[in-house]
Amino acid sequence: MANTSYELFQQLKPGEPLKGDWCNFPIPANIEVGENSVIDSSSCFKKFFSKLPVGLKLGSNITLQSPALATEENGYIEIGDFSFISGACIAAYKKIIIGKHVFIAGGVTIVDTDFHPLDPAARIADTIAISTVGNKCLRPMFDAAPVIIEDEVWIGFNATILKGVTIGKGSIIQPGAVVLKSVPAGVIVSGNPAKIESIEYA
Known about the structure:
By secondary structure, the protein is mainly beta. The protein has a single domain (20-195), classed as UDP N-Acetylglucosamine Acyltransferase, domain 1. It has one helix at 120-129, and strands at 10-11, 31-33, 38-39, 56-58, 63-65, 68-71, 76-79, 84-86, 89-92, 95-98, 103-104, 109-111, 147-149, 154-155, 160-161, 166-167, 172-173, 178-179, 187-190, 195-199. It starts with 9 loop residues before the first strand and ends with a strand.
C-alpha cells in the first residue's frame, strides 16, 4: 500500500535524528517543542545557527513541511499551536514571532532585518567582509526589528514580510505581496508595496 502524506512526517524531538531522513542533518538541541508537532526533514535546520538556550520554540500540533528556519547566533523564532508552514523561509537575526492557527504557504519569506547595510559604502565593506578573503567579524552594523505574525493569519504563496512588521489577527496576505509596514487585524492586503484591498471581517 502506498504511503499517505501523513506518514511522511515524524515527531520533532530536540537533539534526536529523524528515521530515514534524506538529509540526516542534526536536529538542534536548543529547541522547545509541544505535543504532536511534526516535520518532514531536518533539512530545515541547515541555516539554524542560534546559540541561545532556546533558539526555536514550537507549540503543539504544528506541521513543518520543508521550511527553512534560519537564525543568526542570537536569533529566536517562535511558532504557535496548530500552525502550518510549507516551504517558507523564516530568517531571524533577532526575533520572529508567529501566532496560533497561522498558515504560511510555499515561497514565503519572513525576515527581521535587511541582513546588509543600506548605505552604499557600508554595503561595499560588507561584501568584502563576507567574501572568501574577508573577515566576517568586520561586517558593518545593520538594522533589525522584530516581526510579529498574530493568530489566524494566512500568508499566500511568494509573499514577503520585512523587518519591523506586525500582521494583525486574522488578516490575509495575498500571494506575491511585499509587506513593508504593519497590517491591522482582519484585512486583506496585496501588491508591492502591500496595501489594504478589503476588510476581511468586522
